[in-house]
Amino acid sequence: MGRPTTTNLHGVLFLQCFKSSRGVRRRNTCCQPKGTLHIQTAMEQLKDKPERLILSAILKSTGEGLFTTHTVDDLLWGYKDAVLSLLFPLHPKKHFFGLFYGMNGTDDGRYVILTGEQDYHDFARVIEWQDDAILHWWTSDICNMINGTDGSSFHPLITKKEKVYIFSSDLCRSLYAIFERTVYVKGVTAFRFVLPPNLFANASVNPDNAGFCVPSGNCLGSGVLNVSICKQDAPIMMSSPHFYQGDQKYIDNIIGMHPTKEEHETYLDINPLTGILIRAAKRLQVNVHVQKIAAFSETGNARMLIFPVMYINESVLIDDESAKKLKSVLLLTSLLTAVPFVIMAFGVLLGIIFIIVACSQHGRPQDEGKVDEKAPLIRTS
Predict the structure, then answer these.
(1) Model-wide pTM > 0.90
(2) What DSSP designation does 239 have?
(3) Mean pLDDT by 10 residues, the chain (381 residues)
(4) Which of 46, 120, 230, 246 has the maximum number of C-beta atoms within 10 A of its C-beta?
(5) Distance between CA atoms of residues 311 and 2, nearest Å
């Protein structure tokens, strides 16, 4: 495939948060349904236990309601929470809450991947994650499989007919993408692969997704994945931004939802010859499950709905220098690939010329020569 080349991908992380009061979006603050992230997790665990009285008393003393507003920085990286401080007075580390609190500068576990030495289709394929070859969250063997790469690289010689598999630790499951169209990124040819609508479809539409219904049989509508089982039982639901490709009921329940393919679709642009990722956008929305809990008056008359908190647009694009190097490698590979065919064509051409000449010589009448040339070498008088 030519000499190895180093490819740099420039990444951009875009965060969009939602404000609940009027259903409009604001970039600098997020309105977080407190009861459905960390507090409602405790509510669910304590609703049938005597300790619920302690939690209820703390909520009333702090005056906390179902919603609270914080900056994006606080919601992502953590803030000191009054309720948690009173709930865990002897554990200072538990006084803080954030979607990514304590995760900055960390990784998501140990991966074991194949080199593709035996079969190039296995290049970068994940076979173990966190020292396990399968997952243990879902209710079917298919859903618990670890398939594909981590999404940063793929095997060479990708075709339009194949499915590109990816293991996503963020979603606690394996995904796949299908070919949509050919694109050109900085002069480099790439195949665009996108997530199909049936990937997160309801089990009635895609029976293979029945294993993602937790507990078994408790299936959500299309476009939403319940990941609470792998997020310390926090009622977190994942989807595409603005519930793109999701059921219309989720879109209608929240004012300001306007899903579009251009802004909210996840895609991968992969060079088919090398398997190098040229451009990509991973777009995920973090939602929480809001519902009324009878044991806690703080939940009010909240009706059950999937409430969006924020969405992430994590995009990468190959830089100019790497694109130039890759184009040179692809050109050299094309030339080397063409040499055998040029030699073969030249050989066929010579063969045709030889056959034509031979046939023309065979069909020409023989020259009878002069009389002297036909006379015997020894003459008798």
Answers:
(1) no
(2) E
(3) 40 52 43 57 73 77 71 80 78 79 80 93 94 94 95 94 95 96 95 96 93 88 92 85 95 93 96 94 90 70 81 91 88 69 76 78 59 60 56
(4) 246
(5) 40
